[in-house]
């Protein structure tokens, strides 16, 4: 089975730092928006394990990649032993604050949930996303929410 998805970047329309928290994070108030700029991911079942490839040689394709982490957490949660190959066509600029990696991780969670008919709820995907990165839950939802606190949904 093979699927191709588009994963949109996000921008911060507003970002207010309200103070520092005891846990080392900052209290924030921000409005974010998904935009039309997208990476394109192709996911295909393969031999055992997770394989990640990317058109941008600066992107690590090892277990530190958020796409790899997303595939691993959903496969562990669902007890999946199949292999998955994920190719990233990188269009979102690297390290530009546009949440490209988080968008890709969110896309992998949604795509594998659908591709393997796992039936995981939005809340479960959000919980998994929170283990990967603070922007992943937003990228699962998209749109233009007001977010407060330390930036975790």
Automatic annotation (TrEMBL):
NCBIfam families xref list: ispE (TIGR00154)
Statement: the UniProt record of this protein carries the keyword Kinase: yes
GO MF, one example: ATP binding
Taxonomic source organism: Alkalibacter rhizosphaerae
InterPro entries associated with the record: GHMP_kinase_N_dom, IspE, Ribosomal_Su5_D2-typ_SF, Ribsml_uS5_D2-typ_fold_subgr
SUPFAM superfamilies: Ribosomal protein S5 domain 2-like
One Pfam family, short name: GHMP_kinases_N
UniProt-listed GO biological process terms: terpenoid biosynthetic process
Protein name: 4-(cytidine 5'-diphospho)-2-C-methyl-D-erythritol kinase
Residue span(s) of domain GHMP kinase N-terminal: 65-143
Keywords from the named record: ATP-binding, Kinase, Nucleotide-binding, Transferase
Gene (UniProt): ispE
EC number: 2.7.1.148
Keyword flag Nucleotide-binding: yes
Lineage: superkingdom: Bacteria
């Amino acid at each position: 089975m093979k699927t191709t998805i588009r994963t949109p970047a996000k921008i911060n329309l507003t970002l207010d730092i309200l103070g520092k928290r005891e846990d080392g994070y900052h209290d924030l108030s921000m409005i974010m928006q998904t935009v039309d700029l997208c990476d394109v991911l192709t996911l295909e079942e393969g031999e055992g394990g997770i394989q990640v490839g990317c058109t941008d040689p600066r992107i690590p394709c090892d277990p530190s990649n958020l796409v790899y982490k997303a595939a691993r957490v959903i496969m562990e949660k669902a007890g999946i032993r199949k292999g998955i190959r994920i190719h990233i066509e990188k269009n979102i600029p690297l390290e530009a604050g546009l949440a490209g990696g988080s968008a890709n991780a969110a896309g992998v969670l949604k795509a594998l949930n659908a591709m393997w008919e796992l039936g995981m709820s939005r809340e479960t995907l959000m919980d998994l996303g929170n283990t990967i990165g603070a922007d992943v839950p937003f990228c699962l939802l998209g749109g233009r929410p007001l977010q407060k606190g330390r930036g975790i949904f």
